[in-house]
Fold this protein.
Amino acid sequence: MSPDRDLLRLAALSCFAAVALGAMGAHGSVHDALTASGRLESWETGVRYQLPHSMFLYLLALFLGNAGKGISRGWHLLFYGMLLFSGSIYLLAYFGWKWLGPVTPFGGLLLMAGWLTLALSRWQKPKA
């Protein structure tokens, strides 16, 4: 079976976004704004979680054609968890939107649920 091309694209776009957001946090006006507000470390936390999860999601999507529903469910939990966790941190750091505070731990819970789902899923051998 072939990999899920849509999930590969989403994961690749998330990798691209993580690298771009990391660069923005390290240079230029975004860096200056984050440094002035004391929120650069928060921004870096978002990147630190987004990039490795995105890379893992890309690799996992390569094998989803042979995987069961649990693996697919785990992929989606990780993706939405990463989106909520890192995304809320970026918005909190840049705009200072404090109302997003509760979203970050919810994203973290989704990340944990995704990893637990993968750990408990039935892994199948690829079909030759």
About this structure: Residues 5-120 form one domain. Residues 69-95 form the longest helix (27 residues).
